[in-house]
Amino acid sequence: MVRIILTTLVLVASFTGCWGLGFGTPSPNKWPLSVLEADEYLRNHSQIFIPRRVINVGEDIYSAIGYALANMIMINGPDGIVIIDTTETMIDSWTAYEDLRNEIDDWTKPLVAIILTHFHTDHYVGTFRLLEHAETQGWNVRIFTHETTLDEMARSSVLKLYASRRGTRQFGDALVLGQELLNAGIGLESKHNDTIVNDTLVPTDTYRDNTTVQLAGLEFELMRTKGETDDQTSIWIPSKRALFCGDNLYEAFPNLYAIRGNPNRYAKAWYESLDKVRALGAEYLIPSHTEPVVGAAKIAALFTNYRDGIKFVFDQTIRYMNLNYEPDDIVMQVKMPPALAYHPYLLEFYGSVDWSIRSIYQGLIGWFDGDAASLNPLTKKQRAHKIKNIATLPAMLENAKASYDRSNANLASSGFAINEELQWALELTR
Q1: Are residues 185 and 234 in the same domain?
Q2: Can you say how many angstroms the Cα of residue 404 is from the centroid of all Cα atoms in its chain?
Q3: What is the CATH number of the domain that holds 154?
Q4: CA–CA distances in Å: residue 234 to residues 159, 207, 238, 276, 362
Q5: Which of 69, 291, 328, 350 is such that its CA lies 20 to 30 A from the CA of 177?
Q6: Structural domain total, the chain
Q7: pTM of the prediction?
C-alpha cells in the first residue's frame, strides 16, 4: 500500500511539474515556469475550447469547436452541405450538427457528403448519427476517406481493449474535469458514447494520392498528407482559398509519439506534408482541433514554424544517432531553440520533444539501443528480486520518500519540482 500511494504521489507531482508549458508565448526570461505559472498556462489553454461554439470562419465555412475532442466543420455550398469530421460520440455529433445547421438557418439544404480526415475515432464515430437523420430526409450522402482508412481501422481494432485502457490513461478519462483534469491538450476532454456503437463505416468514395471532386456546387481537392496518421487527408477548396488540415497541426506540440501507443509516425513525412499544404497559399486554415486561422501571411508563418519544430527534432535526433549517442543521451542533448520552444503552437500540451526523440530513434532502427545489456533484459519482477538482495524494501521506500521530499521542499521554497528526484522515486517504487 505504501508503494502504491508513493507512486501515485510521484506521478501527480511529475505531471504537474511538466505542465510548465503554456498558452500564448512565455517570455524566455521566465523560462522555465514554476509549477504555479505552468498551472495557469494550462488553465488558460482550456479557453480555446470553452465555451463550445460555432465559429463563422467566412466564405460559408463554419467550425464547431468544444463540443467534443475534435471539431466538426461545415461548408455551406450552393447546392448542399458538406461536413468534415464528425466527433467521437453520437450525442455530441448531433449537437454540433444542429448548431451548425442553425447557424445558416436552413434545414432544407441536403447533406451531400461527409469527408473524414483519418481513422481516429474522434473524427468519424458521429458519422452514424448524421447518416440516420439523412436517411429520414431521403438524402444520399457520400462518405470520403483515403483508400487505407479502413485498413487502419482494422489494424487498430486488433488491440482495441489494450489500446482503450492506454488511451483512457493518456486522456485522463477517469479524472474529474476542471479539478484533476484541466484539458486534454487538443480539446477539453475525450468523450465516450453511452452505448456501444456497432455500425461499420463504409466509405462510398476513396482515393490514393490526390483527387478532385465536385460537391454541393464546389470543387474540393483531397490530398494524402501523411503525418499524425498515414491515411491523413487534407482538403483544399480553391475557390475559397480554404484549407482543412485535419490533425497535422495543433495548437500544441504534435504527438510524434502518442503514449497510448501507436505505430511509428514518420516525422520526415509529416514536415514534408506541411510544406505541401503551405505552398497552396491558403487564406483560411481550419484545423480539426483548434480555432481557425485567417490571413495568408499568418498561415504561411504558422506552417513554417510548425514544420521547423518537427524538422528540428528529427534532424537533431539523426545527428546524434550518427554520433553514436543512445536514446537517453540524445534526449539530454536536444533542446528546441527559443524561437520554436516558446511558439504558442509548439508548447508541449500534447506531444513531448523527449518522447518524439525516442519514437524517431525506434522508428528508424528498432528497439535495440546498441548496448549488449539491453538484448535480453531481466523482467521487472526478476530485477526487483535481484535488487532486494542488495537493498531491502524498507530502505528503497525510504530512499524514494527522501527523493520525493527533496523535490517537495524545493517546490515549496522556489516553486520548482526536481524532476530527477521525482523520477528516481518513481523508479524505486514501480
Answers
A1: yes
A2: 30
A3: 3.60.15.30
A4: 27, 12, 13, 10, 27
A5: 291
A6: 2
A7: 0.90
